[in-house]
Automatic annotation (TrEMBL):
InterPro entries: ADH-like_N, ER, GroES-like_sf, NAD(P)-bd_dom_sf, Quinone_OxRdtase_PIG3. This is Quinone oxidoreductase putative. It comes from the Eukaryota. Pfam families: ADH_N, ADH_zinc_N_2.
Length: 346
């Protein structure tokens, strides 16, 4: 194995997509409880855009190289590794950073054995997905976190997923449907995305937040009852609507603030008391390995069997070769995608 590897760097440490280039770095060495992975594919997330621009607080244990989700093959193992991983295993997983590279070192606590039926590109699109301008982490792991750990979902509950065509909501809709939600509502910014959520994913109904009063429409659809769990990435502009559509004893899970964090002066928070609402924010990348392992195990329990039998679908917008990372970032910045953007390394 070579001592050096190719990795994506940023000229001047921060900048636009044009600042991305292929750098050469030393291959990292696995420590206790870690594995060295030869990366086959990695996924792009919106946190990467912020990190590239110097606007993201990278965890202290993260390398400077971007990228938090990947698939690949174990090449080396440190001591005291668990979970029955062996050299040569095909895996996918989540990292604090460093996935935009030929090799990555990661804790085995956040590795999952890749099902044979999944491609490298599909596996790389499972762990994480960012759809916000804050610090939260997303996709199947975060959808599971929002639904089960924070939202305390139980079969028969109703759910509203904002940003319905984002990768996290795509995962969350499928999780809720397979786990017998009474209704799954979505909001999105175009009719095309709403049609996708209903036609491809089976959402109950969808609302264009740019053209409709989505909160009033959901209250009509639920005969004034509202919904039990709301998962929101948007923030300020949806805050009042979330309070309005929340059912009695509902849970609002805040995962991002794409529209900003400052509320207008006429926001009515009385629903928090009157409806006994629980409002909770959540992050993932800054969590310790113990918490992330719990989420890894949650994903394995709830979702992995459904990937094996292809009940759950991984929607990939486009696959780029590693060398076209700048173009991949530009596509992510366009906000025109449904599903994941993936880069592959030969």
């Amino acid at each position: 194995m070579a001592d050096m590897m190719k990795a994506v760097g940023i000229k001047g440490s921060k900048g636009s997509a044009d600042a991305l280039f292929i750098d050469e770095l030393a291959v990292p060495k696995p420590g206790d409880g870690q594995a060295l992975i030869k990366i086959k594919a990695f996924g792009l997330n919106r946190m990467d855009l912020l990190q590239r621009e110097g606007k993201y607080p990278v965890p202290p244990q993260a390398p400077s190289t971007m990228g938090v989700e990947f698939s690949g093959v174990i090449k080396k193992l440190g001591v005291a590794t668990g979970d029955s991983f062996e050299i040569g295993d095909s895996v996918f997983g989540l990292a604090y950073g460093g996935a935009y590279a030929e090799y990555i070192v990661v804790s085995t606590c956040m590795l999952i054995h890749k099902p044979q039926g999944l491609t490298w590109e599909e596996a790389a699109g499972i762990p994480e997905t960012r759809f916000d301008h804050d610090y939260t982490s997303k996709t199947w792991i975060t959808a599971s976190q929002a639904l089960y750990m924070v939202g305390e979902y139980a079969p028969g509950m109703s759910i509203l997923w904002h940003a319905g065509a984002s990768s996290v909501s795509i995962a969350g809709i499928q999780l809720a449907k397979i786990d017998n939600a009474s209704a799954v509502y979505v909001t999105a910014g175009s009719q095309e995305k709403i049609d996708f959520c209903i036609g491809e994913l089976g959402a109950t109904a969808g609302y264009n937040y740019k053209e409709q009063d989505w909160a009033s429409e959901i209250m009509k659809a639920t005969n004034g009852r509202g919904v039990d769990i709301i998962v929101d990435f948007v923030g300020a502009t949806h805050f009042q609507g979330n309070l309005d559509v929340a059912a009695q004893d509902a849970r609002i899970v805040q995962l991002g603030q794409m529209s900003g964090s400052i509320l207008s002066g006429n926001v009515d928070i009385s629903g928090l008391l009157r409806k006994r609402l629980r409002f909770e924010g959540s992050t993932l990348r800054s969590r310790d390995e113990g918490y992330q392992k719990k989420l890894r195990d949650l994903l394995v329990d709830h979702a992995l069997p459904k990937f094996n039998d292809q009940t759950f679908k991984i929607f990939i917008e486009k696959v780029f070769p590693f060398e076209e990372i700048a173009e991949a970032h530009r596509l992510l910045e366009s906000n025109q995608t449904k599903g994941k953007i993936i880069c592959t390394i030969n």
